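testing teh design pipeline on a random one, pls ignore if ur not involved
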């Protein structure tokens, strides 16, 4: 069962003023002239989404970093999945560890947010990951399997679901699990997806995220059941991000 094209997604987090749009224009040019066999997505801060989408870039899709659990109402400062879809977002990152930890988002909330993203026609990139304590206690697989099972909403279909495995201790730290460790986790996630969706579940992309850079990307992206990357810091500059994307000149 072959998966769709790999996806290399950049999460800009709370970085980027108006001038940063130039990096996305540059990235779009670089990807357009390359042979990279992957899809490319940038999730900028919500303040930049509208102006970037108006550029009608052909080689870079635009997504968001979060949405609310509800579609409309008295939720000051929040943004709904429907609003993001209306702007032109194709994907929404859901349950990033910085939301799970910094905003108390548990699997129930993540499930509701993913449901909103999917209901309004975007693909939910559902993030899962273990803490350093869970990793050191040998609980990684148990934690990840439970997060994946509880975070995927009942309305999810294969076409609008992506999972991103991001160990919390690897995010922004320069530390990366072994290739064997990543393969073990991704293979367990793949099994859960097949249990949930039948054989079609094997078509869901499972991204790895956590300190991906140009030096480690080839090894990570060649790993069994790794179908792309979710990249934070190294996605902010077009050249750095393009070096990761270029790994897909060589990886199928
Ligand atoms: C992330 O925030 O999703 C992430 C993976 O960050 P970094 O690449 O900087 O570790």
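output:
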């Amino acid at each position: 069962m072959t998966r769709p094209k790999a996806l290399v997604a950049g999460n800009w987090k709370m970085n980027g003023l108006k001038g940063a749009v130039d990096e996305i224009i540059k990235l779009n040019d670089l990807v357009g002239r390359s042979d990279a066999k992957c899809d490319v997505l940038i999730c900028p801060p919500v303040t930049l989404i509208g102006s970037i989408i108006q550029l009608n870039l052909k080689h870079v899709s635009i997504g968001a970093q979060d949405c609310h659990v509800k579609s409309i109402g008295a939720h000051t400062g929040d943004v709904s999945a429907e609003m993001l879809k209306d702007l032109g977002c194709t994907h929404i990152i859901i349950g990033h560890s910085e939301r799970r930890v910094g905003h108390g988002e548990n699997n129930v909330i993540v499930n509701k947010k993913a449901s909103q993203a999917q209901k309004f026609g975007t693909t939910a990139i559902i993030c899962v990951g273990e803490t350093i304590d869970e990793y050191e206690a040998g609980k990684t697989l148990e934690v990840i399997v439970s997060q994946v099972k509880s975070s995927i909403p009942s309305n999810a279909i294969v076409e609008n679901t992506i999972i991103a495995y991001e160990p919390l201790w690897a995010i922004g730290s320069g530390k990366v699990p072994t290739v064997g460790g990543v393969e073990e986790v991704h293979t367990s996630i793949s099994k859960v997806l097949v249990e949930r969706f039948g054989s079609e579940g094997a078509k869901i992309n499972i991204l790895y995220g956590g300190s991906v850079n140009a030096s480690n990307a080839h090894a990570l992206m060649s790993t069994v059941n790794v179908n792309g990357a979710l990249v934070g810091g190294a996605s902010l500059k077009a050249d750095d991000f393009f070096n990761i994307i270029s790994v897909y000149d060589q990886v199928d």
